[in-house]
Fold this sequence. Notes:
Layout: E1 2-11, H1 15-27, E2 33-37, E3 51-54, H2 64-74, H3 81-101, E4 121-125, H4 128-139, E5 142-145, E6 147-155, E7 158-166, E8 172-182, H5 212-220, E9 224-225, E10 234-236, H6 244-250, E11 253-255, H7 262-266, H8 277-289, E12 295-298, H9 304-314, H10 319-327, E13 337-341, E14 354-355, E15 368-370, H11 382-403, H12 411-430, H13 437-451, E16 460-461, H14 463-479, H15 488-513, E17 524-525, H16 533-536, E18 538-544, E19 551-557
Parallel strand pairs: 1-2, 1-8, 2-5, 8-15, 16-17
Antiparallel strand pairs: 3-4, 6-7, 7-8, 9-14, 9-18, 10-13, 11-12, 12-13, 18-19
Helix pairs in contact: 1-4, 1-11, 2-3, 3-11, 5-15, 6-9, 12-15, 13-14, 13-15, 14-15
Amino acid sequence: MKKIDADILIIGGGTAGCLAAVEAKEKNPDLKVVILEKGHIDRSGCLAAGMNAINAYINPGETAESFVKYVRNDARGLIREDLVRSMGQELNSVVKRVEDWGLPILKDTEGNYQARGRWNIKINGESLKPILADAARKAGAEIYNRVAVTNLLTQDGRVTGAVGFGLRDGEFYAVSAKATIVATGGASGIYKPNNDGSAHHKIWYSPFNTGAGYAMGIRAGAEMTSFEMRFVALRTKDAIAPTGTLALGFGAKQVNALGEEFMVEKYADVGGNGAPTCYRTYGPTLENKEGRGPCYMDTTHLTSDDSYNLKKSYLNMYPHIVLYWAGNGKDPSVEPVEIAGTEPYITGGHCQAGYWITEDRGTTLPGLYAAGDVAGGAPYKFVSGCWAEGVIAARAAVEYVMTGSNPDVSDAVLAAEEKRVRAPQQRWDESGDGVSPREMEEKLQSVMDEYAGGIKTFYEISEARLKIAGKEIEKLKGQTQFLIARDLHELNLAHEVIDRIDVAHVLIKHLLHRQETRWPGFTTNQDFPERDDEEWLKFINTRLNPETGDVEIVERAYSQVVS
């Protein structure tokens, strides 16, 4: 067992985690800041392949307040305004900081950032993640790569660190910390994806973001919010590349199989404020359901030079689609690009699923902070919003450390968790009999797809189907005791599927409780197809009751968290 003492532990070395580490060390260089990263910090998380735009930035003419209004409309009236405002106030400063570290931001002839839409600026971001990792290293953070964190450590309700295991060395890690920041990202792999078999990881969100940060918080009793606001990305078919590059960067419109530009006529002006993001998925989903699909991004207006520049833009973040076009003889200037919705994801960056937090990003568990996609209540974060939250959380964690005491970690607790962690491999060694992680993952995804509003049902839910899903997920939770792992890789997969099942269990509670359709396309409730502000302009939260083991619903009034 490898024991590590830290002042601040950061779980996850992605975009929020790196900024948190730098900010903490700058605020107090004497603090020991430790990062545990499941992958390798140079190429981990959602930014592993880079980005070609910063999608949350306060361009000239906008303010943090106008940003809050925009995000509130995009989320159909329900956000944590305090969180979005504090994030908006930090966006430009964190972008400038990362530019100073070496991020190339495109500028016009007068030296101004090139806008790509109201809240976006253009970048050459293929090396974005190595830039962030290098900054964390130079700041003096102690980084442990390829360590999968399995649970938080708690004492008298306070979080005192975390435990996990090395994916290469098999070592059991126990980190004692005065303050902990969870920055692990959201959850993919809960639903059956568009592609299967060997291509099952060809999805929109990072396939290695498996909800671990959510799951360990759920098990520790933290309050969670808004899981029912799922995110369904509109992407190119098969390659699952972003469509925003086509729409914002190159003026492509959505059309159906009849060549009709349906978004403008049917969905583009909901309530007189423009189409919320969920409608961009809802539109083509309905067109397909009603027999007017498949749908496309119409790129046939592009010149050969435009086509070249489009491919060049994708090379900054999603090179696979360029190879896909080349390998299949496709030219976007000649034929439109087919689009499809992905499976649902649980994320606090594009939507707002995550920990219920204070403005300083403190969770309901003392000593624990959340930043980035794992933090709830503030959608429309994207990359820069995660940076902002990492900075805000780090400032609060530094202050907490200065007033906190050294935690006392029980050897008995560590031994029990190590036994739990190694159990799948132990079962394999003893009998070789049990359920593989892949088998259980496929069962989970099949249940969620069919009964909890996946691609198969056009993202539509009903009470009857959700209750079936709930029963099936309860069975799966009981069957995790039969998981087996032949090696460290499968041991990691086993814990990933355990985490996904715990997240799915809570997600179903959220979906059942919200009796309206607030985000059509992301989650369409067939029993309650209309939005209902009078009854449901409130946050649906959950927390695990430590005495009963039940997941309990907590309603939080919207009026209590807005200024």
